[in-house]
Amino acid sequence: MKTVPLKKITVVTEAVLEDHLVREFRDLGARGYTITEARGDGHRGVRASQVEGNNIRVEMIVSAEVADRILEHVAKQYFTYYAMIAYVQDVEVVRGDKYV
Amino acid sequence: MKTVPLKKITVVTEAVLEDHLVREFRDLGARGYTITEARGDGHRGVRASQVEGNNIRVEMIVSAEVADRILEHVAKQYFTYYAMIAYVQDVEVVRGDKYV
Amino acid sequence: MKTVPLKKITVVTEAVLEDHLVREFRDLGARGYTITEARGDGHRGVRASQVEGNNIRVEMIVSAEVADRILEHVAKQYFTYYAMIAYVQDVEVVRGDKYV
User: Fold this and answer.
1) Phi, psi values for residue C14, rounded to 5°
2) Which residues of A touch B68 (CB under 8 A)?
3) E-strand stretches of chain C
4) Residues contacting B4, CB < 8 A, separation 6+
5) Measured between alpha carbons, how far is B8 from B29 in angstroms, rounded to an integer?
6) Within the 34-73 window of chain A, which residues sit less than 8 Å (CB to CB) from chain C?
């Protein structure tokens, strides 16, 4: 099966940010996203207890360039004041040309 | 810790396909699967608005051969008429011999 | 964007184990975790039908050392008597220094 090497970005954060993030990720070049409800604790010190039970996990398949732009954006915009985890992984995508 | 290198397939698609997919994935060699509810938008043009709020994400740990067979199958069978994302990643699995 | 190479551990298992696992993972060095509800079948033979509809998927971003410790622990402690899948993947994490 021919696949296309792309990047998967995962952002776990407070549910209240969903609308903002989705709009911004599109502006930065993401062609789509998948959201699952999540809960968690830790990683972010003082905010941890406030986000428990009300998190979202946003996933996007994007090019390396868009991945970089999105991570740069969330690091600058959200990491100081919001509980957020963001990471990137390599993926091999079926019909990956649709995502770039 | 000794782990076994395997493939993780992720398929995000319309919830209505769940029973079909699960049966087919087993027939193609998957020994099990994990499903989470998801929602999303985009990646697939015209169908996007119809799948919002009613998606599933199916994950399977399989051998490279089974991964290839499953991706080939969904690309041929579903990509034309259904909203679907499918990708594969490398994983290192504890007691991975159970999955092949 | 500067990221830090870390490990993502995923454990899919019976929901009844959540409190135990979370406590143990912290003791083993995890600084946080994300949990999503999941359902599934297979991979684990006889227990499969009992865990359907009542699984959790626990994810943690950790160092390679902590990853190893956690996988070792769950393999020894849970794999014999509980339905459980555990695997590790490479991730590139924004502000990854917070996780080690």
Assistant:
1) -70, 135
2) 1
3) 3-14, 32-42, 55-62, 84-94
4) B92, B93, B95, B96, B97, B99, B100
5) 13
6) 36-44, 48, 55, 57, 68, 71-72
pTM comes to: 0.90
Residue C65 sits at the vertex; the CA angle it makes with B95 and A9, to the nearest 5 degrees, is 80
The one-letter amino acid at B15: A
Residue type, C13: T
- What string of pLDDT tens digits covers the 100 residues of chain A? 889 999 999 999 999 999 999 999 999 999 989 999 998 876 544 344 444 558 999 999 999 999 999 999 999 999 998 989 999 999 999 988 888 8
Does ipTM exceed 0.95?
Answer: no
Residue with structure tokens 């599934």? C40
Neighbours of chain A (3+ CB pairs under 8 A): B, C
Within 8 A of C36 by CB-CB distance, chain A residues are: 36-39, 57
